[in-house]
Structure formats: structure tokens, C-alpha cells
């Protein structure tokens, strides 16, 4: 069965999350390609913006209920209704787990957010009560434990009970879903699930760039990259000076570029812009630019001013890159740190998460 237009828009809206900058970026690229189609681009942007609004509304309605906007497409309404029904089945399955297994209770927002990312926008999915139970069980590990209990007459005995341990590490969680439930979530679906979780529980979007994603402690993204023997940088020292001039400036994805606010990719883009070199505006696209233009280098060839990229979680972007910094020489880096809330100068950290090195000359 061919997916409907609304279904495709729904999936695209989830993939982009609630970040309107992404839609604006799409339109900017199209404008650069073909000026005569500006009117069509405006229509696309309006459609995309509306889809993003519908997506946010769909998440809130599916999780919390409420008034369905008249302007919302009929397909979206059907998806929301099916989600609400499925959430009822998930709650029943989680209630059963909580009743028979003592221990940690899994975050139901997270359970439902993963389900939402897997099935929202699907015209047909048929799940049985056993399917919902198996899905819910994927979020906990079960252990047989013993404890000593005191009877009414004062005697003690040892009894065995089943304990549930909530899975919090996201890498372990999605591996468990694959092995127990039989569904392998794509990197995009994994990222979408976390975005939906943040929106439903905290009414905010999940950070897409940064160095502080403890939920993904076992994650190491990236891929194979060809490295090149590039000439020495002529502006690397100046780039480092520029990066150092921003030390202590506050971190913000939302306000980056306003006043002293910056995030990791805006810092690197700004530094290179000052020396007359233009690179894209996100960490992942900066990485893509370097790979596609044969500007990648090996780690042992790093020089001051080169860029270092990390992957801390799947985000559906190029090489799942989530962070970038300016190599400052002698094993040090300058980066706008999400975890520290500001631009810092520190050791070249988390070598196991580094996935790419480049020299944008």
C-alpha cells in the first residue's frame, strides 16, 4: 500500500523534530539552487512549518489528550487516535509488569515515545496483546532475587522474588528492543524517540548537538573515512586565537549567534568565517563538507586550527556527528561545551567518541 502524503509528511516532521531551523535550511538550499522557484519554495516551507506544528500537536495530543485542531489533517487525527489506543495497551502491559515484578519502574513516557517513533505515520500496524506485553518487557531486565521475611510468629524465612531493573542506557535499551521485541530501530527512529520523549515529558526539544549525552554511554557512531595528506594550515593559528577569544561565552543552541551565545558548530563556523573560509552551520554538515571535499586527516596529523568531531548518540545526521571543536595543539581543544555550559579550553577528551578530523582549507 502506497503511503499517503500526510503519512510521508508525518514521518518527515518527526525526523526533523520541532526544529524550524531545519526547515529554513531546506528552503535556503533550494533558493540557492534555483531562484525562479521561490514561490514554490515558500509553499514548501509553509507546508513544512505546518507539518512541524502538526507534529508537536500530535505528540501532545497522543500523550496528554485535548482538543484536536480543525486544521489538522484527517490522517494525523487517525494516527493520534491509534496511538492513544496503543498507549492504553502499553499502560496495561506496564501495570502487569509492575504487579508481578518488584524493583525499578520504567519511565512510561520513554516507553511510549519509542513506540511512537516506530509506528506513528504507519497506516497499518496490527499488534496483539502479547505484542504489547513483549514490547513493554523490552524496557526492563528481570532478575531472580532472594530476601528474608519475618512471619507473624516471629520466625524468618528466605523467599525468592522477581525484580525488574529499568534500562536507562539508550544503547542497551535499543539492543534489548531488537533482541526481545524483534524490531531494529534505525538511527533516525532512535533519535526521534528521544525527541518525542523530551517533547512529551518536558515540553522541549532534545539537544541535537553537544558533548553531554550520558544516556548513550556505550554509543560510538561514525564510519570508515579516507584520510588525506593535506598541506600545513596557513590560518590554523589564527583560528585558534579566535576560538580562544570566545572562552567563557555561554552555550545555547537556541540563542547561538545572538550576543555572546554560541554552540559547538556556531563557534567553529564563526572562527573560520573570520578568516574568509565558509563552512556549514551544523557539526554534522561540517563533517560532511570535509569528507565530500577530501579535507579529512588522520588524528596523528592534527595541527592547530583543525576540527575534531565526536558522535555521542544516534541523531540521524551525517556519521551521527553530535559535537565539534577546534584543535588547539599539544593535545588540547577549544569547544563550546553543552555539559559545561560555555566555551572551554581542555584536553582532547573522549577519544573513543571521536569519529572524524578535518582541515577546512
Task: Give structural notes.
This protein is α+β, with helices and mostly antiparallel strands and 361 residues long. It folds into two domains: 5-206, no CATH class; 236-358, endopeptidase domain like (from Nostoc punctiforme) (endopeptidase fold (from Nostoc punctiforme)). The protein is built from eleven helices and eight strands. The strands form two sheets. A five-stranded antiparallel β-sheet has the order 7-6-5-4-8, covered by helices on one side. Strands 1-3-2 form a three-stranded mixed β-sheet. The chain is globular. It starts with a helix and ends with a strand. This is Peptidoglycan endopeptidase. The chain crosses the membrane at residues 26-48. Belongs to the peptidase C40 family.
How much strand? 5-15%
Ranges where pLDDT stays below 50 over 5 or more residues in a row are: 16-48
Helix/strand structural class = alpha+beta
Q: Average pLDDT value?
A: 86
What keyword list fits this structure?
alpha+beta; five-stranded antiparallel β-sheet; 2 domains; three-stranded mixed β-sheet; 361 residues; single chain; endopeptidase fold (from Nostoc punctiforme); 11 helices; 8 strands
Please describe the topology of this protein:
Elements: H1 5-16, H2 20-33, H3 38-64, H4 74-100, E1 102-103, H5 108-119, H6 129-137, E2 140-150, E3 156-166, H7 170-181, H8 187-202, H9 236-244, H10 264-274, H11 283-292, E4 307-310, E5 323-329, E6 332-337, E7 342-347, E8 354-358
Parallel strand pairs: 1-3
Antiparallel strand pairs: 2-3, 4-5, 4-8, 5-6, 6-7
Helix pairs in contact: 1-3, 2-3, 3-4, 4-5, 4-6, 5-8, 9-10
Amino acid at each position: 500500500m502506497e503511503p499517503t502524503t500526510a503519512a510521508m509528511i508525518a514521518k518527515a516532521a518527526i525526523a526533523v523534530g520541532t526544529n524550524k531551523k531545519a526547515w529554513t535550511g531546506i528552503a535556503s538550499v533550494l533558493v540557492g539552487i534555483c531562484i525562479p522557484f521561490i514561490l514554490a519554495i515558500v509553499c514548501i516551507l509553509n507546508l513544512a512549518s505546518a507539518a512541524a506544528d502538526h507534529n508537536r500537536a500530535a505528540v501532545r495530543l497522543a500523550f496528554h489528550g485535548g482538543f484536536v485542531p480543525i486544521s489538522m489533517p484527517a490522517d494525523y487525527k487517525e494516527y493520534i487516535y491509534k496511538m492513544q489506543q496503543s498507549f492504553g495497551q502499553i499502560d496495561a502491559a506496564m501495570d502487569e509488569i509492575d504487579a508481578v515484578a518488584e524493583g525499578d519502574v520504567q519511565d512510561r513516557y520513554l516507553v511510549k515515545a519509542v513506540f511512537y517513533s516506530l509506528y506513528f505515520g504507519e497506516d497499518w500496524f496490527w499488534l496483539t496483546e502479547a505484542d504489547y506485553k513483549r514490547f513493554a518487557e523490552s524496557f526492563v531486565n528481570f532478575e531472580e532475587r532472594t530476601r528474608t521475611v519475618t512471619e507473624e510468629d516471629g520466625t524468618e524465612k528466605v523467599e525468592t522474588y522477581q525484580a525488574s531493573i529499568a534500562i536507562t542506557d539508550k544503547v542497551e535499551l535499543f539492543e534489548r528492543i531488537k533482541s526481545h521485541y524483534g524490531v531494529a530501530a534505525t538511527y533516525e527512529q532512535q533519535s526521534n524517540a528521544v525527541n518525542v520523549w523530551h517533547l512529551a515529558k518536558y515540553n522541549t526539544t532534545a539537544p541535537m548537538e553537544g558533548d553531554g549525552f550520558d544516556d548513550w554511554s556505550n554509543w560510538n557512531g561514525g564510519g570508515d573515512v579516507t584520510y588525506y595528506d593535506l598541506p600545513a594550515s596557513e590560518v590554523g593559528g589564527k583560528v585558534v586565537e579566535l576560538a580562544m577569544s570566545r572562552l567563557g561565552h555561554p552555550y545555547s543552541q537556541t540563542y547561538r549567534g545572538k550576543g555572546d551565545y554560541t554552540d559547538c558548530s556556531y563557534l567553529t563556523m564563526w572562527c573560520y568565517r573570520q578568516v574568509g573560509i565558509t563552512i556549514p552551520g551544523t557539526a554534522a554538515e561540517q563533517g560532511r563538507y570535509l569528507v565530500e571535499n577530501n579535507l579529512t586527516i588522520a588524528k596523528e596529523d592534527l595541527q592547530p586550527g583543525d576540527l575534531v568531531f565526536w558522535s555521542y548518540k544516534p541523531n540521524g545526521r551525517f556519521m551521527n556527528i553530535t559535537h565539534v571543536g577546534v584543535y588547539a595543539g599539544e593535545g588540547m581543544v577549544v569547544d563550546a561545551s553543552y555539559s559545561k555550559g560555555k566555551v572551554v579550553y581542555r584536553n582532547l577528551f573522549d577519544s573513543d567518541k571521536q569519529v572524524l578530523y578535518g582541515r577546512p582549507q
